[in-house]
Amino acid sequence: MRVAVLASGRGSNLAALARAIDEGRCAATLAGVLSDRASAPALELARARGLPAIVVPPSAHADRAAWDEALARAIAQLEPGLVVLAGFMRLIGPATLAAFRDRIVNVHPSLLPAFPGMDAPRQALDAGVRITGCTVHLVDAGVDTGRILAQAAVRVSPGDDAARLHARIQAAEHALFPRVVDALARGRSMDEIARFEEGEAPRP
Ligand code: GAR
Prior knowledge:
Layout: E1 2-6, H1 12-22, E2 29-35, H2 41-48, E3 53-55, H3 64-77, E4 82-85, H4 94-99, E5 104-108, H5 120-127, E6 131-138, E7 148-155, H6 162-185, H7 190-194
Parallel strand pairs: 1-2, 1-4, 2-3, 4-5
Antiparallel strand pairs: 5-6, 6-7
The structure holds glycinamide ribonucleotide.
Residues 7, 9-13, 86-87, 107-109, 120, 144, 170, 173 line the site of glycinamide ribonucleotide (GAR).
């Protein structure tokens, strides 16, 4: 299955997905990477693999609706069976949602529905939870509200700051995300995937 990846930043989840594909642990094919930011390191990773690296900057469009439509067109050019958000820091609009209904998944650094939106590891520390983690979910019109497909737990350690906690959450993401993409690429149903038993991520 061809997978289009949307990423705004570093791209460590993209790198983990690419590694899983290279090592035969994920049955997907990378169709290309799209970003809202021309400087996103994730685009470099795509270029290094000879993949399309496409920038759709909001500033180049008259309004949010025009940007959303341009994004939907750019994704469609890659002819993906699945669209994955790997650190894509913008809300997906109605044109993109309609074009890829139930075919967009996101990875988020908390156990949703706790701590949606920005700075989820910071939110977890501020709330004083002892366990947080990551979630892979379907994308709908809300902020991190779509159907949960899989989760992995990560323990909060004494003395954690947001960066240290996020690094351990990301290690859990790097294991979980390619597994879910693999299951979707193999045509597993959402119900089957939602029944995954996730072990706890290793303690530091
Ligand atoms: C990941 O931890 C992902 O869960 C988070 O951004 C990071 C991107 O890292 N996404 C969100 O917070 C979305 N709400 P990466 O660029 O290294 O993959």
